[in-house]
Write a structure and sequence with these properties.
Layout (H helix, E strand, L loop, with lengths): L6 E4 L2 E4 L16 H4 L3 E6 L1 H8 L19 E2 L8 E8 L14 E2 L7 H9 L23 E9 L6 E2 L1 H14 L8 E7 L4 E2 L7 E10 L2 E8 L6 H4 L10 H19 L6 E2 L18 E2 L5 E2 L1 E3 L2 E3 L4 E2 L7 E2 L3
Helix pairs in contact: 3-6
């Protein structure tokens, strides 16, 4: 779901408003109000919010459906990312996911020993991510089946119990200005936080993750909010067991795939979405298709890099469209 302005919780209600930013860390330049107006999109709603709005069950057997006319999703002229790159920002004073980077460290994606790192390294080239190759720009150049996990930064600082969207953006800027992160226009900077942190202001009550973009030093920065979904298991997870015996990371890869797909096909909020504002992954939120039972008795629907995962389907931009598990 696309939203034009940052999200603020006031009296339990979700409203849109400009945010101010106190800044964190050295040289953390906050995005201006005008920059923030373009920042937030791709809200991955909670299971309850999706069910209430669209009448969709958070079940594991949905198979999607055709859109009315065309493929059910339209191109609006904006850019897409042809070869997606991702970076991880682990924001906290302790390791967030099992085997993950030690706070205070930086490195390449190959050095991230968590299940999150494994998923990001193996997502590109999979039949699942290949669904995104059905999307293209105004020159008819198609997205490639490519995701490269280039870098991570584990910032050894405490984000606080509630983090505004502007503070989240400032955290990415802190990494870029300090040299902990390298800027690249085709990179999506995923920001992960630990348990019980309200990343963005509406985590668990309105959404489970989101992606967006902002301008920094004249450069377009793509980022996502990736809060700890296991904090709200009934709202932000759909696991039956844990395919990789790592409940928190197994839950997180579902929203991680969602935001990566949407950034690839709608990086600046003006490319691919339907008449209701839903991006490709929104159209298949909490729908998993055909599932199977893993060796440890858990439910999964995708094998990526040789491991089992439960990951929502994605909307294919061919024929009448529809939610698919692979292409």
């Amino acid at each position: 779901m696309r939203v034009r302005l940052p999200l603020v919780m006031i009296g339990g209600a979700l409203v849109v408003a400009g945010c101010s930013d106190s800044g964190t860390g050295p040289n953390a330049a906050a995005p201006s109000a005008s920059q923030q107006e373009q920042s937030v999109t791709g809200i991955f709603k909670t299971r309850q919010a999706v069910a209430a709005e669209w009448g969709l069950m958070a079940a594991k057997g949905g198979n999607g459906g055709a859109g009315k006319g065309g493929t059910g999703i339209q191109y609006h002229g904006g850019p897409v990312i042809f070869q997606q790159k991702v970076a991880a920002v682990y924001w906290g004073t302790s390791v967030i996911y099992n085997g993950g980077p030690t706070p205070g460290s930086t490195g390449t994606g190959a050095q991230d020993g968590s299940l999150i790192g494994f998923f990001l390294r193996n997502l590109g080239g999979s039949p699942y991510f290949n669904i995104n190759t059905t999307y293209f720009d105004g020159t008819n150049t198609h997205v490639q089946n490519s995701v490269t996990y280039t870098q991570y930064w584990a910032d050894n600082s405490a984000p606080g119990a509630k983090v505004t969207d502007a503070q989240l953006q400032a955290e990415v800027v802190k990494g870029l200005t300090s040299g902990a992160l390298t800027y690249d226009p085709n990179t999506l900077y995923h920001v992960f936080t630990g348990p019980n942190i309200n990343l963005g202001g509406g985590f668990g009550s309105q959404y489970c993750a989101y992606h967006g973009h902002f301008t920094w030093n004249g450069l377009d920065v793509k980022y996502s909010a990736m809060p700890y979904d296991e904090t709200f298991p009934s709202a932000c997870t759909a696991l039956n067991g844990s395919p990789n015996n790592d409940v928190a990371a197994d839950a997180e890869v579902n929203t991680l795939a969602h935001e990566t797909e949407e950034s690839t096909t709608d990086e600046d909020l003006n490319a691919w979405f339907d008449r209701r504002g839903n991006e490709n992954a929104d159209k298949c939120a909490w729908m998993f298709g055909t599932t199977y039972v893993t060796a440890n008795g858990s439910t999964a629907n995708e094998k990526i890099g040789g491991k089992d995962f439960l990951v929502q389907m994605n909307w294919i931009n061919l024929g009448n469209g529809g939610c698919r598990q692979s292409f």
